[in-house]
Specification:
With 105 residues, the protein is mostly helical. The chain has a domain at 47-84. 58% of the residues lie in helices and 0% in strands. It contains 2 helices and no strands. Helix 1 runs antiparallel to helix 2. The longest helix is centred in the middle third of the chain and has 35 residues, at 20-54.
Length: 105
């Protein structure tokens, strides 16, 4: 049976330019890997080095408490204001002033 030319899958040509979508997917995968790896690897490395330096987990737990308190403070102030539609003042430090998108929606 002969396949029509419209349903036949084309193989990529070696050395052909890569599309922008492929580069975007590669960038997203690289950033995703880096973020997930360090979120998984960094806390045990920090806790282990602090335990090795001080012989106790107290310094690591204190550091964890400080980071958690900072995250709570940011959530209660910045994130809550943004979620409730707090006042937004446009930046005026850009050359040309504030620009809008000129949409009808």
């Amino acid at each position: 049976m002969v396949q029509s030319s419209t349903t036949r899958s084309e193989r990529p040509v070696p050395g052909a330019p890569v599309s922008g979508r492929a580069w975007l997917m590669l960038a997203m995968a690289t950033v995703g890997f880096a973020v997930n790896f360090w979120a998984w690897a960094l806390p045990p490395l920090v806790m282990g080095s602090l335990y090795g330096a001080y012989g106790t987990y107290g310094a690591g737990l204190a550091l964890l408490a400080v980071v958690a308190a900072a995250a709570l403070a940011y959530t209660l102030t910045g994130v809550r204001a943004a979620a409730e539609g707090g006042e937004h003042t446009p930046r005026t430090d850009r050359p040309g002033g504030h620009h809008t998108a000129h949409t009808t929606a």
